[in-house]
Amino acid sequence: EPEVTQTPSHQVTQMGQEVILRCVPISNHLYFYWYRQILGQKVEFLVSFYNNEISEKSEIFDDQFSVERPDGSNFTLKIRSTKLEDSAMYFCASSEAPGGTGELFFGEGSRLTVL
Amino acid sequence: QQQVKQSPQSLIVQKGGISIINCAYENTAFDYFPWYQQFPGKGPALLIAIRPDVSEKKEGRFTISFNKSAKQFSLHIMDSQPGDSATYFCAAGTYYGGSQGNLIFGKGTKLSVKP
Questions:
Q1: Which of A46-55, A93-102, B17-26 has the highest mean pLDDT?
Q2: Does residue A2 sit at the B interface (CB-CB below 8 Å)?
Q3: Record: contact B101-A95, CB cut-off 8 A
Q4: pLDDT in tens for each of the 115 residues of chain B?
Q5: Which of A2, A106, B29, B90 is deepest in the core (most CB within 10 A)?
Q6: Do B99 and A95 touch (CB under 8 A)?
Q7: B75: Cβ contacts below 8 Å, ≥ 6 apart
Q8: What 3-state class would DSSP assign to A82?
């Protein structure tokens, strides 16, 4: 069964450092997303990406965050200068183009710990 | 307006019993209501979803009931099993228009099914 894969599974970083989280979406999917989940809390939308540009972003997705699809398979989330409150599980997701089922397929997440 | 309120926060059910989780939303533009199941250390996985043109959808032991006028929807798990023990999230979004990935999640319900 096709799946969304994320790396690294866990990253520990110092406050102020840059972090890049990587995702390989399902191959025939065209919409890509990042969500985050602070420990024990709800899953929150960060950003959606389609046709090589951001479709929507939430208030959380400020200037410290950026996304990129550097090649045909990877989708990355960069946090330029990490803060303590960025500590969370970051989930990548992908879905088919409109007209498909619309189902979001989530990866297993990348846990980011900022010290 | 963008909130989805979910209750209860936690639920303990005996094996074979019925688990019921409720959600309410405010934004009448929402037209897609999925439920996600999350096991510890894993990403959310779509369990079942409903659109507002029907009042109920059943898949196996899982049923969504939808009340458009009350802006409420609920998940019923019949014959609950220990393997159903997980955190369940309701969500809401717009299915069409290219932004079906911008889901607003509830805070989650931790379900424990006792043998």
A1: B17-26
A2: no
A3: yes
A4: 678 999 999 999 999 999 999 999 999 888 889 999 999 888 999 999 998 888 999 999 999 999 999 999 999 999 999 999 999 999 998 866 544 568 899 999 999 999 9
A5: B90
A6: no
A7: B19, B20, B21, B23, B35, B47, B48, B62, B63, B64, B88, B90
A8: coil
Inter-CA distances, B67 with A14, B23, B50, B73, B90, Å: 48, 10, 11, 6, 14
Q: What is the largest CA-CA distance in chain B?
A: 44
Residue whose entry in the numeric block shows the structure tokens 């006792």: B114
Chain A residue numbers with beta carbons less than 8 Å from the beta carbon of B41 are 108
Give the number of A-B residue pairs with CB atoms closer than 8 Å: 67
pLDDT given for residue A71 in this prediction: 87
What residues of chain A lie within 8 A of the CB of B1, using their CB?
none
Preceding omega of A70 cis (within 30 degrees of 0) = no
Tell whether B21 lies on the interface with A, counting CB pairs under 8 A: no
CB contact under 8 A, B96 and A56: no
Q: Which two structure tokens, joined as six digits, stand for B38?
A: 């999350």
Look up residue A50 and give its two tokens: 């389609």
Residues listed for chain A: 115
Does A103 contact chain B (CB < 8 Å)? yes
Instruction: Give the pLDDT score at B15.
Output: 97
- Chain B positions touching A41 (Cβ under 8 A) are 107-108
